[in-house]
Amino acid sequence: MKIAVCQINPIVGDVRHNTQLICSFIERAKGEGADLVVFPELAVLGYPPRDLLYRPETFGLVEQVLNEEIQTRSQGIGVILGAPVKDSFNRSLYNSALFYRCGSLMGRQDKTLLPTYDVFDERRYFSAARERGIFHFKSFKIGCSICEDIWNDKDYWGELRYEFDPVYEQAVEKGADIIINIAASPYNFGKRSLRADMLGAAARKYGRAIVFVNQVGGNDELVFDGSSLVLDSTGRIVWQGRSFEEDFTVIEFPNKSMSSFQVKEGIECIYDALVLGVRDYIRKVGLSKAVIGISGGIDSAVVAAVAVDALGSENVLGVFMPSRYSSAQSLADSRCLARNLGILLREISIEAVFDTFLKQLNNGKLLQDVAEENLQARIRGNILMFISNKEGHLVLSTGNKSEMAVGYTTLYGDMSGGLSVLGDVFKTTVYELAHYINRRKEVIPQSIISKAPSAELRPNQKDEDSLPPYAVLDSILKAYIEENMSLEKIVAQGFDEYLVKDVINKVDRSEYKRKQAPITLRVSAKAFGSGRRFPIAWRRP
Q1: Among the options 69, 111, 373, 478, which is catalytic?
Q2: Which residue of 26, 306, 423, 464 shows the fewest CB atoms closer than 10 Å?
Q3: Predicted confidence band at 21 (pLDDT cuts at 50, 70, 90)?
Q4: pTM above 0.90, yes or no
């Protein structure tokens, strides 16, 4: 049996576009002699559809394309793909894998394990499968599961995470010859390696080949990396889909290939995830251009480089907005960066507006306090939003996760924008990204990388005037936010107790800011946004 793996990039809600994409891959699979073609979870509607699932017209259109397009295309080939299904008997909604063959629907397997942790909220919408079966195709018994269904191996995790283990039931109790998992598994750093390790353990445990077909693309804050996998019955990876782009292959089973793939993960994965996230967010909301406030600092430089790789230099506008506190070096660095990236750089001084505000609000006096600092940031935010409204550019905000965590940001100022590119990237990782960007030639001027970080909102200002060194700060933040450690455990790692308390207090007090921030591209296991739901008004006991 030859199976075609279709790693596609659907647009959430655009059922007709997704169906055309699916049909084109079905025809390609036929042309390459495949017997069966497999697509990701909820491929017809895109993942995650969220409350689109509550709109009645969604299901009318999904049912129409399934009956009129997909079913018809299954003449001469088997098709497995994901779609939402409303059961006509109990009116429950299911996240389903549908199996078409010879122009007919031959089987349906609903998703059993519905995750509700981190960014997932599937029990809000779906009912769990009542039973787990197999699809019969040619001489094979196929155990088809959906994403989370394969993440419950008690031998791998040391315990059952859910009541049922669908893969065990299909492989052992139902005698499946091959396991197919259709997925929409979002990326975070380390996820690709974890998936490969877990799937390899399952293949070895059951002595079954596994086909893992994952969605690719950016949908709001989530970035799906693809990285689909085919493993033989020994757990060896015999094919690995490209990461962060669509891919297609036809694999014959049983597979006798001697090729073997290794899953490697480094800073390039974070960079590629950010590029895809920016490209797809802007494309899928119907825009094509971005505008960035270029400060001469490393954060805006990295965001500009990401935007150029995502959109092309002709679609990226940089704006340098100096005040009386901006250094000549920042101007020179901004101009050099723009030349290296091939982007247009506008220079718009905020001095006149800043001076007018001071005269109106502060009798012309300079206090050099936080109100004055925030005023400068808000003037810059207004300029960027004016350009956005007038010229149709999406503002990309440039704040990083370290700043967002401790509130070293200005509401309606540097937080203005439609998308936060680095909001899930710690400052120390921003430097790693800068070095990665410069791996072949100097794109980001070395002077930007080597100078001390500064917001340049008062004379001789440095970030370390208000914050610990970023290497220390990021270690504490990672422990508290991503690893959910208590104060006591963080202190036990060797950090000063007063410092840890201060950082934690800053994180907790800044929740109100993060609630008003642009959506943030997620590249870690715990990003600010839908996967971290803390109250604003709360108090420690």
Answers
A1: 111
A2: 464
A3: very high
A4: yes
